[in-house]
Amino acid sequence: MWGLGQEELGGPCSVPHKGKGPPSGAGSPQASPWAGAVRAIMSLNCLPRKWSLALGPVCLLLFLGVALLLLHRAREWAEIQEQKECQELIWLLESKNLFFGNFQYRKTSRNQKRIRAVKKWDIWTEDKNILEHVLLTEECQWDPDAAVVAQYRAELGQCCNASSLLILTKENTPLGSNIVFGKDGRKVPVRPDLVDLLPERSIFSEVQYEHCAVVGNGGILQRSRCGKEINQADFVIRFSLPPARNSSEDVGSKTSLVALNLSSLDSKYQGSQRKRLADALRPYRDALLLLLLPTLQSRARNPPLHSLEDSDVLQRASFLNPQYLDALGSYWTGEGFQPECLSPNFAFVSLALELCQRITLYGFWPFAHGLSGQPFPRHSQVRIRPREFSCYLKMYLQGILRLRLGKCQ
């Protein structure tokens, strides 16, 4: 319809083609898709006036319709190509396990420029590789894989059962039993003073949350304006004592659970400073405090625990169950995750995976610089290990969880 030339339409303005071969552009595969439409509309000038007046608006509408259709098809094609490239990248990073090596992959000019900048950073080569992978995946649209999440949730519930075994309770840790630590099988007897601190049963029994936010203390949260988004989560997990200088606009104010390693805090809150520990925990009076201890001895023999004895903290605190951590480590090792991944942070990401439909990680970042190269303030440089971060990146690529590495607003 749109391919008719002047001679086929007829009229006084028809000009016969001269010379050898077809007219310039006519019948050529390189001809613009708009050429036929333009020629058809221009030919209306050669028709009787009343025909031109009648057919002009119709042809214009048809021309606009074809233009919109072509634009829509072009966008669809671009989206399909982008999806294919992202799928190829994910396959390379995931199935070939190339988190710590270089590989050949098509890069956009924007990616190439940013990756060249990263290569100049004063960090280990394998860390530069991780950053390169982050920059490549950053431009791919992330979609959750509900089927994979459901599978992991079911398997974690079967092997580790956070609902019942995450914390020590009178139900799973009766008086006279032993608590077994680690692969060396070290045993600590359960004594009356410990049993007095344990709840009857786990507060996580038969609970499920729609959306959980797991908030690290990395400097990448600075100026992120993620606070509002974090506060909208149904369950918010935080680690240790978040830096006091962090703005609630960036990190939010809602806290459902705080995981504390009291052994590491003991060096900071010694002697006369121990009261400061209880004071620092006071803002989290509405949250569950989950204590991580290398050994569960009596309060008199455990200084960090003893420092909280006179406060109300122990009345609302729970202890992380070593049995849960051992089962969790065995499960993820069987899934191909390296031992470097299995930190306390990773344990609570696993908890969220078992209890939540959707998981978003904030503030998990292993470097002293952001993606654009800006250094973080020294007080906010709370970092995880690069290899641990690579495990979260792998889970992100699988559609298990979402990694927030930029601004939320």
From TrEMBL:
Residues 1-31 are annotated as: Disordered. Keywords: Glycoprotein, Glycosyltransferase, Golgi apparatus, Membrane, Signal-anchor, Transferase, Transmembrane, Transmembrane helix. One of its GO terms (biological process) is oligosaccharide metabolic process. It comes from the Eukaryota. It is a single-pass type II membrane protein. GO terms for molecular function: alpha-N-acetylneuraminate alpha-2,8-sialyltransferase activity. Pfam families: Glyco_transf_29. It is found in: Golgi apparatus membrane. The keyword Aminoacyl-tRNA synthetase does not apply. The keyword Membrane applies. One of its GO terms (cellular component) is Golgi membrane. InterPro entries: Glyco_trans_29, Glycosyltr_29_Sialyltrsf, GT29-like_sf. Residues 21-31 have a biased composition (Low complexity). PANTHER family: ALPHA-2,8-SIALYLTRANSFERASE, ALPHA-2,8-SIALYLTRANSFERASE 8F. Belongs to the glycosyltransferase 29 family. This is Alpha-2,8-sialyltransferase 8F-like isoform X1. It comes from Podarcis lilfordi.
